[in-house]
Amino acid sequence: MVNRVKKIYQSTGKKISYLLIALVSFITIDGLLTQYLVSQSDFKEANRFMAPLVNQPSFLIIRIVGAILCAVLLWDINRRFPKAGLIVTWIAVIGCGAIVVWNTSLALLT
Fold first, then answer.
1. Higher pLDDT, 4 or 87
2. Deepest of 14, 26, 53, 72, by most Cβ within 10 A of its Cβ?
3. What confidence category does residue 6 fall into, taking pLDDT thresholds of 50, 70 and 90?
């Protein structure tokens, strides 16, 4: 029984690592696409707090630092509550992935 639990936790640890890397990558790609779309056309940043920073170099730095902070918090949640942490991380990755797909479609269609 103990070995079975160890195997499940080890596989969850690998999954969460890949998911967190994907999450940080999606958030970074979203920031790059947002900068591109805002600078090339009439698109606007939907986040009112980040909108004034889109054309500033600090925009990407804030996005990357925020993504890493989210990844650390999700990793901590996963460490304490593995099943809940994995579910929440999946939801975040799917949500960010959908945003990246949306922004990519906008970039390709304009």
1. 87
2. 26
3. low
The C-alpha angle 61, 52, 102, rounded to 5 degrees, equals 75
Whether 31 contacts 60, CB under 8 Å? yes
Question: Which one-letter DSSP state was computed for residue 49?
Answer: T
List the chain domain ranges: 2-109
* Rounded Cα–Cα distance for residues 66 and 109 (Å): 29
Q: How far is CA 58 from CA 43, 55, 63, 66, in A?
A: 19, 9, 8, 12
58-109 pLDDT per residue, tens: 999 999 999 999 999 999 999 999 889 999 999 999 999 999 999 889 888 8
Rounded CA-CA distance 91/57 in Å is 29
Residue found by looking up tokens 């690998």 in the block: 14
**Whether residue 9 has pLDDT greater than 90:** no
Distance CA 80, CA 90 (A): 16
